[in-house]
Design brief:
The protein is an all-alpha fold. It has three helices and no strands. It is elongated.
Length: 68
């Protein structure tokens, strides 16, 4: 059986394809979140405002998204 990722809803009785789909959605959300944080910073929003929107502390937002 060939393993592929898909945007279709996997059969809930088949856990491995469902796990692949979850992992892909998680990666997509991470990319989107990073892009939105970069955009917010470029528009001058504070780490505090970004953190509030994400439901995390300012320090956690800066640590996760700040330049390394």
């Amino acid at each position: 059986m060939r393993e592929t990722t898909t945007t279709a809803t996997p059969d809930p009785e088949e856990p491995i394809p469902a796990l692949f789909a979850i992992a892909e959605r998680r990666r997509a959300l991470t990319r989107e979140e990073e892009a939105l944080v970069r955009r917010a910073r470029m528009q001058g929003h504070s780490w505090e405002a970004i953190a509030t929107a994400l439901g995390i502390t300012k320090q956690a937002a800066h640590k996760k998204f700040g330049r390394k």
